Structure formats: structure tokens, C-alpha cells
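Possible regression after last week's pipeline update?

I re-ran a chain I had predicted before the update to compare outputs. Posting the input and the new output here so someone can diff against the archived version. Not blocking, just want to make sure nothing changed silently.
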Amino acid sequence: MLQVSDLRVSYGQSEVIHGVSLTAEPKKILAVMGRNGTGKTTLFRALIGLLPARTGSIKIDGEELCDKESFERVAQGIGYVPQGRMIFSTLTVLENIETGLSRRGGMKVPKKIFDLFPVLWDMRKRRGGNLSGGQQQQLAIARALASVPKVLLLDEPTEGIQPSIIKEIARALTQIKDENEIAIVVSEQVMAFALEVANAVLVLDRGEVVYEAPREDVVPATLARHLSI
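New output (post-update):
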């Protein structure tokens, strides 16, 4: 579904992503891991088009995205949940989700989104800024899902969230993966969460891939060493 090849991204003259390649498949979750400052958010911003790629390729279903603007990438099938959630604090929960409907051309939020996050239905008339951090994260995921993406990118979805909500997000991502033809890529630092939800793991360090393996081949001690270097 998503294929990234030899991607290089720079801030000015300084290259910060060095030839990263990855593949995300339908009905699977790829966890992109690494410590703070290793390039995870930069990679995700490049995938959605907020940063230009210096060289390389980003494709969905074989369609090249590197020459497309962010809104065109959304139309092509990328859903993006940014670090910090970035919900619209003055809009209601329902209005926030409705902003994601433009790609699919619908006028009504699909019922299955509220089935996935029942708390959002209960709070649909409440302003987004009045929700807890965990509830805002669920709202940000729901907004991205409203566009019916082929690929869902989530940047640090567990950051600043209480353990009970982290478990709820893990359940939701697994359900999304199982019930839809969607590839999910999660940027994450928490090893327990990543190993619970992911089908494969990739570790970035200083903008380079230093470790990758399918979930069944991951040695937790080895992974932990890469995350603590």
C-alpha cells in the first residue's frame, strides 16, 4: 500500500533523513521507533508533504506522491494524526470529525467511527478543547479515519496519555487494521505498546534505519538496546 524508497529529507542544507526505505502493507501495522530527535517526526512530515523530499520516492498503490502537495496526498489516500493531535479546539467533536469528510465526499460521519470510539458519540456536542488529552487523541484518529484513508500515519499517539487510554488506542488500532484494507504506520517510543500492536518494527537513529524485523523475530533486549543508545 505504501512504499518508501531511499528517502532523503533536509532542513536547509542539513540532511536529516538518510536514504530511508520502508513498506507498509494492508491489514498490518508498522511501528517506526526511536528516541527523541532520531527523525521519526521529520519522516512523517515528509510522508504527508509538510517537508519536501530531497531525493527518493513515496508511493501509494504505485502512484508517486513526492511531487504532490499535502492536500493531494490526503486525496490520494494518506490519513495523518500529527504529534500533539492538533484538533480544532473551538469546534465541537462532531465538527472536528466532519472536517475529515472532504476526501470521500460524504456529508455524514460513518457510524462505525463512533462504534470504534463510543466516548466521542457521548461528547459529540462538546468543544474539542474541553476533552482530555486521551479523548483528543481518539478524536484526531477519528478525524483521519473520516477520509477513508488507505494509509494511516500516527505520530507518537501515546505521548502524554494515561495507561488506560493507551490500551484503548491499542485496541482501536488493532480493530481498524483487522476490519479495513488499510496500512497503519505508527511512530512510537514505548516498546510495550509497539510490540502489542505492530506486525513489524523499524528503528531510526540519526535519520537512518538501524534495525528492522517482523514482530515474531523481534528480540526485546536487542530492541531495547537500540532505543537506549
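Follow-up from reviewer: compared with the archived run. The two ends are 32 Å apart (CA to CA). Marking as no regression found.
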